[in-house]
Structures are given as C-alpha cells and as structure tokens.
From TrEMBL:
GO molecular function, one term: flavin adenine dinucleotide binding
Record keywords, A-Z: Disulfide bond, Oxidoreductase, Redox-active center
Cofactor(s) needed: FAD
Gene Ontology terms describing biological process: cell redox homeostasis; cellular response to oxidative stress; glutathione metabolic process
GO cellular component terms listed in the entry, alphabetical order: cytosol; mitochondrion
Ranges for domain FAD/NAD(P)-binding: 33-162
Entries under InterPro entries matching the protein: FAD/NAD-bd_sf, FAD/NAD-binding_dom, GSHR/TRXR-like
Family: Belongs to the class-I pyridine nucleotide-disulfide oxidoreductase family.
Protein name, entry field: GSHR protein
Natural source organism: Vireo altiloquus (Black-whiskered vireo)
Pfam families, A to Z: Pyr_redox_2
Length: 163
C-alpha cells in the first residue's frame, strides 16, 4: 500500500472532520461538498511527482536501480542475479516490496468480489457502502477514511477463538 497515498487520504478525512465541526466554532459552511475524483487526481499526481523526485535523487547519487525478480548467487563476492544478469557490488539493497495474499473463492466464497488495500487507491468514486476485513492499522485507517468521507462502512475482524 502506498504510504504517501494513505497520508493524503488521511489528511482528506481530517479536513472533512474540520468541515463537520465548523458550526461549533461559529463558521457557517452550508453546501460544502466532497469530490472523490478531485482528491484522487490530485493525490495520484502528487505521488507521481514525488516518485520522480526520489528516482532523480537516486540517479544523481549514481545509484543504479534494477527492477525485476532477483536472487543472491553462490559467488564469493556479494552478487545478485536479476533476470539472468549478474550484479556485483560492495553494497546491495534489496527492496522486496510485497503483495497481499488473496484467498480463492473455494477457501472463502465470494473472496474474488473483494479488493486488496491497494485497490482502495484505484477506486474511481467513493463507495456508498464498504466492508473492510481485517484489524491491522491499514484496515482501521481505511475504514475511518471511508466512513469520514461519507461511505457507510463496517469493519469485520476475524477471531479464531473466544476471549
């Protein structure tokens, strides 16, 4: 999940809370509307711009970025092999990334109807209703954001045993 994307969406929800509280501080703000498309477009452009800046800074530092699936080799020097080509250097940084495990429909009927937290950032519009499954910080953060912005949201937590 993109942490920058999450921060932008969290800040969006904070602004929604401020708007909600304006009347308590004497501000009259009738007709304030939220536009998901606007924040999505601005957030995506912001993240692209920052990613370009980060990548340019890495290049200016004369650091090679090699994208692909890699593995360490048995060579005596620190060596990795990426897509058939070997790279040796005194310092090698591996940024593994990650991918969520999505159960099959045979394991959990209807699982294919859901999306991962990454899919949240691809949403083209604010869902009228949403169900978030999980109890990690990303799940709690996303359900809070969606709820604050106007999606009727529920958080489901799986528990294997009764406490």
């Amino acid at each position: 999940t993109c942490s920058l994307c999450g921060q932008v969406m969290w800040n969006t929800a904070v602004h929604a809370e401020f708007v909600h509280d304006h009347a308590d501080y004497g501000f009259e703000t009738p007709g304030v509307k939220f536009n998901w498309r606007t924040i999505k477009d601005k957030r995506d452009a912001y993240v692209r711009r920052l990613n370009d800046i980060y990548e340019n800074n890495v290049k200016k530092a004369h650091i090679d970025i090699i994208r692909g699936y890699g593995k360490f080799t048995a060579d005596p020097e620190p060596t990795i092999e990426v897509e058939g080509k070997k790279y040796t250097a005194p310092h090698i940084l591996i940024a593994t990334g990650g991918r969520p495990a999505v159960p099959s429909d045979s394991e959990i009927p209807g699982a294919s109807l859901g999306m991962t937290s990454d899919g949240f950032f691809d949403l083209e519009e604010l869902p009228r209703r949403s169900v978030i499954v999980g109890a990690g910080y990303i799940a709690v953060e996303i359900v809070g954001i969606l709820s604050t912005l106007g999606s009727k949201s529920s958080l489901l937590i799986r528990q294997d045993k009764v406490v």
